[in-house]
Description:
By secondary structure, this protein is mainly alpha-helical. The protein has helices at 4-32, 35-56, 77-95, 97-118, 130-147. The protein has two domains: 13-55 and 71-95; 96-149, no CATH class. Helix 2 packs across helix 3 (77-95) and helix 3 runs antiparallel to helix 4 (97-118).
Amino acid sequence: MLTRLALFLLVALGGAALTLQAVWNARLRTATNSPVLTTIISVTITLLSLVLVWSSGMTNRGSIPAFATLPKWAWLGGALAAYYLVVSLIAIPRIGAAAVFSLVIAGQMVAALVVDSIGAFGVNSIPPRLSHVVGTTLLLIGALLIQRK
């Protein structure tokens, strides 16, 4: 079982990986000249990588649930990933990786605070504490400062 510290480190590395993914995809976009085609290539490589991990037996293989057993929104996470990928590919060459990711993190924090506080989409409700609001506010201020020229 993962310790809390190990989990924190793995998540932080995932954040670093997202930055590298976006920067590498932005470079690929210069060759394809299309944010959508670049996203298709990226998602195809993602799918192939996941199929390799899934077929290796390193994780539980699970099963595909019947469509009607889940709320319709539960199937749409991939559409949000596509939106994120395309927007980041358009934005990184124009405003830079630091500016894009400061806005991504700010948006994530605001959305996460709302989702947690109201228990949206089946997430356990976690009432916001002053520390949550202050931390999110500081992240928003940091995002604004990074945007300054």
